């Protein structure tokens, strides 16, 4: 199983809502990532978890709150988002981190629209 | 973060080879060169990566210049399914933090 599964595939939320994005992998990977991708732009790194600990936070606003309950699961909790936060949110995993020789496995993403 | 430069777009014909260039003149000695591609409505997909020597796998070949300041991704026979945005990425180490920072990528169009 070389799959990274993200749910939901689509999400529409208002600015006062609280929602969560979920990501799951069963490849035994110990590193997991959140990326954000605006339309027609490259993915931008948000967070890196290694062995369930937050290792990188790319100065992401606190309205995005990541959580790694165990090595297979990664959540992104959303609260009080702005319309400009509308984007494709991608989860990825790799065997280990930091390793320059690692390859990332990406999910298909959650397309988020904030109204 | 280490920078890469790629053409915005390229076009190819089906069943012909495609050479996708990437310049990375500021590469450091220990940076790996990674290639990912992203098909429409999907997440990025790993293609290939290398350090100094040319690399081959079932998807593509990676040719790395001797001075490592440029590289070329080679698709030996393009198919319609290869139409995607191709990203050339350097693994970037900063303050002990290792990460892949995506550049703008090359949009490849494959004509039937």
Task: Characterise the protein shown here.
The complex is a heterodimer of chains A (115) and B (112). By secondary structure, chain A is mainly beta. In chain A, the strands form 2 sheets. In chain A, strands 2, 4, 5, 6, 9, 10 and 11 form a 7-stranded mixed β-sheet that branches. The N and C termini of chain A lie far apart (36 Å). The mean pLDDT of chain A is 94. Chain A has strands at residues 4-7, 10-13, 18-25, 31-37, 44-50, 53-57, 64-70, 73-79, 87-94, 105-106, 110-114. In chain A, 0% of the residues lie in helices and 56% in strands. With 112 residues, chain B is mostly beta strands. Chain B has no helices and 10 strands. In chain B, strands 1, 3, 4, 8, 9 and 10 form a 6-stranded mixed β-sheet that branches. Chain B has a 4-stranded antiparallel β-sheet with strand order 2-7-6-5, with no helix packed on it. In chain B, a hairpin with a 2-residue loop joins strand 8 (84-94) and strand 9. The interface between A and B is medium-sized, with 22 and 26 residues.
Choose one word for the global shape of chain B. Answer: globular
Determine the strand fraction of chain B and express it as a percent band.
Answer: over 45%
Structural class category of chain B: mainly beta
Q: Count of DSSP E strands of chain A?
A: 11
How much of the sequence lies in strands of chain A comes to over 45%
Give the helix tally of chain A.
Answer: 0
Give the helix/strand class of chain A: mainly beta
Residue ranges of chain B: pLDDT <50 for 5 or more in a row? none
Main sheet overview of chain B? 6 strands, mixed
Radius of gyration of chain B: 14 Å
Number of helices of chain B: 0
- Total E-strand runs of chain B: 10
- N/C terminus separation of chain A: 36 Å
Name the chain pair with the biggest interface and residue counts per chain.
Answer: A-B, 22 and 26 residues
The outline of chain A comes out as globular
Radius of gyration of chain A: 13 Å
Helix content of chain A: under 10%
Distance between the termini of chain B: 38 Å
Secondary-structure element pattern of chain A, one letter each: EEEEEEEEEEE
Following the backbone from N to C, one meets helices and strands of chain B in this order, namely: EEEEEEEEEE
